[in-house]
Design goal:
Elements lengths: L5 H13 L1 H12 L3 H26 L2 E2 L8 H16 L3 E2 L1 H28 L1 H4 L10 H14 L2 H36 L3 H13 L1 H12 L3 H26 L2 E2 L2 H24 L2 E2 L1 H20 L3
Antiparallel strand pairs: 1-4, 2-3
Length: 305
C-alpha cells in the first residue's frame, strides 16, 4: 500500500517480524537468569539463518542478489559480527557496548526509512519490476489488489490490532515454555545451556525466517528472501543483543566468545563473499552453507557430550 520495494520490506517488516521470537526468547531467558541461552540464541540464530535458511532456500531456487543490498547492509552485517567478537573478548558485554549496538540499529532503520521515502516520491517501487526475476502474474496482482482493498477498510485495523495483541501474548507464553523446556532438556542430556541456546532454541526461533525465506525463494521473491536474512541477523545482533546488554550487562563464557562467535563470523564472511562475487547464490554454494551448518551442529554436540 505504501509503494515500498520488496527489498526494503524484506529488510524491515519481514525481518523484524520473523525475529520477534528471538527477541522474546532472549528477553525471557535474560529475565530468568539464563543468560547463556539468551546469548546462544542470538549467535545460533544468526548461524542458522545463513547456513540452514539461505542454504535451503537457494537449494530450492538459486537466489539472484539485488546489488543495492550490497551497498552497505551486508558490510554492516559483517562489521557487526566483528564487533560482537571485539565486545566479547573480555568475557563481558557492558551497558556502553549495548548502547553502541542500539545506536547502530537506529541508524540502520533511519537509513532504510530515507530510502523508502525516496522510493515513495519517485514511484519507483510501484512502477519497476525487479530486474532479475519476473515476480508478477495476473493472478498474484489481482490477489494483491483484493488484499489491499480489504486492509484499507477501517475495521481491518481493529481486527489486525486484536491479532497483533493476541500474537504478542502467545509469543510471550511460547517463549517462556520454550526456555523452560530447553533448560530441562539440557539437564536431562547433560549439556550446557549455551549449546541448547545455540542449537535447539536458535532453530526453534528461526522457523519463521525459514518459512518466509523458502516460500519467497519458491515464489521468486529473492529480494525478500535474502533481505529477510540480512535484516534478521542485523536485528538479532544490534537490537536484541544491544537491548539486553543495555538493560542488564552479560558475563560471556569462553566457549561463546572464542568458538561460537568466530563460527558466526565465518558463516557471515562466506555469505558476504558469495554475494559480492556472484550475481546469485548458486545451488552448490547453497549446498556448502547447508552442509556446513549440519557439520557445525554435529561438532557442537560432539564436543559437549
Amino acid at each position: 500500500m505504501l509503494k515500498i520495494s520488496p527489498l526494503i520490506i524484506g529488510l524491515t517488516v519481514v525481518s523484524f517480524g520473523t525475529s520477534a521470537p528471538e527477541f522474546m526468547v532472549s528477553i525471557v531467558a535474560a529475565l530468568q537468569n539464563s543468560k547463556e541461552i539468551a546469548v546462544g540464541n542470538i549467535i545460533g540464530s544468526n548461524i542458522a539463518n545463513i547456513g540452514l535458511i539461505i542454504g535451503l532456500s537457494a537449494l530450492f531456487k538459486p537466489l539472484r542478489v539485488n546489488r543495492r543490498l550490497l551497498n552497505w547492509q551486508v558490510p554492516l552485517l559483517f562489521v557487526s559480527s566483528l564487533l560482537v567478537f571485539y565486545f566479547f573478548h573480555d568475557l563481558y558485554f557492558s551497558h556502553l557496548e549495548g548502547i553502541v549496538f542500539l545506536i547502530l540499529m537506529f541508524l540502520f532503520i533511519g537509513s532504510l526509512l530515507i530510502v523508502a521515502r525516496k522510493e515513495q516520491k519517485s514511484g519507483a517501487a510501484s512502477d519497476r519490476v525487479p530486474e532479475v526475476e519476473v515476480v508478477d502474474s495476473e493472478y498474484s496482482m489481482s490477489l494483491l489488489r483484493r488484499l489491499n482493498a480489504r486492509f484499507l477498510k477501517s475495521e481491518s485495523y481493529r481486527i489486525n490490532g486484536i491479532l497483533l495483541g493476541t500474537g504478542i501474548i502467545f509469543l510471550a507464553l511460547g517463549s517462556k515454555w520454550l526456555i523452560d523446556a530447553a533448560i530441562q532438556f539440557a539437564r536431562i542430556i547433560g549439556i550446557s545451556d549455551v549449546v541448547i541456546g545455540i542449537s535447539v532454541v536458535a532453530l526453534g526461533t528461526s522457523l519463521p525466517e525459514l518459512a518466509t525465506s523458502v516460500v519467497s525463494a519458491i515464489k521468486k521473491e529473492a529480494d525478500i528472501s535474502v533481505g529477510n536474512i540480512v535484516g534478521s541477523n542485523l536485528f538479532n545482533t544490534l537490537f536484541i543483543l544491544g537491548f539486553i546488554g543495555t538493560v542488564n550487562p552479560l558475563a560471556i563464557d569462553n566457549q561463546t566468545a572464542f568458538l561460537m562467535v568466530p563460527i558466526m563470523i565465518f558463516f557471515t564472511l562466506v555469505f558476504s563473499i558469495v554475494m559480492w562475487t556472484k550475481e546469485e547464490i548458486q545451488r552448490w554454494e547453497a549446498g556448502f552453507l547447508f552442509g556446513a551448518y549440519f557439520v557445525f551442529i554435529f561438532y557442537l554436540y560432539y564436543i559437549n557430550i
